[in-house]
Amino acid sequence: MARRSRRINLPAPYLKRVWLDAERIADRKAYPFCLPFFEDDFELRFDRAVTIIVGENGTGKSTLLEGIAALAGYDEAGGGKGYRPVDHSRALEKMGGSLSDALKAAWLPKLTNGWFFRAESFFSVARYLDEAALDDIGGPPPPDFLSHSHGEGFLRFFEERCDRQGIFIFDEPESALSPSRQVEFLKLLDRMDRSGICQVIMATHSPMLMALPNARLLRLTRGGLEPASLEETDHLRIWREFCADPEGFVAEALRGDNGDI
């Protein structure tokens, strides 16, 4: 019988700080240490239950989350403590493990319950859990047991877990969700925040998810991580411009006049 984790009577966040230990870096020119935000001393503090990181593709958001997930004891390809069901054929492309070897963390207290969500590996994780549940049932599955869409399965999976104490890391969860499902996930995030027992660290391109009340919003640029408001993000600016005039926005973009997009 699996041993039930002891509940900790302290509120989130549990992971207080991560920082880069220069003495643990063998080669500064190697990836991911060559990323611009690692050039100087890197430190990331968590002072709220929910931290949201935004930034352009290629800035290193996913790699940073992989490193934090590895520190928390999760598989850097996605999953939770004790689950390693995903395909590791791309393991050489993932650098979270090498990053975590050079990171130090301050916990109060150390907590490794929860889940690391990666959109690209969620289907294999969900399939693994479904098959494990079928083994427990010992008979035919109930109706629609395996018929949930990716988005439905995502929401169902985390709705069942959001009342459990833990640290949850999401890498671009909106990629699994339609706009209406993003609204449902926003409610789920708010529920996790209000519970006081969940710490969430999330990277996203969705202005809707960035707007979560009480979350700490950080923008990752070449200069590093800096606090930002929703209104200061390019994501919201571009979204507003599109919503104000969809046809005009698309026409201008296709003409190549919007070089900053």
From TrEMBL:
GO cellular component, one term: plasma membrane
Gene3D superfamilies in alphabetical order: P-loop containing nucleotide triphosphate hydrolases
Pfam family of the protein (one): AAA_23
InterPro entries reported for this sequence: AAA+_ATPase, ATPase_AAA_core, P-loop_NTPase, Rad50/SbcC_AAA, Siderophore_ABC-ATPase
GO molecular function, one term: ATP hydrolysis activity
Places the protein is found: Cell membrane
PANTHER family per UniProt: IRON(3+)-HYDROXAMATE IMPORT ATP-BINDING PROTEIN FHUC
The protein, known as: Cytochrome c biogenesis protein CcmA
Lineage of producing organism: Bacteria, Pseudomonadati, Pseudomonadota, Alphaproteobacteria, Hyphomicrobiales
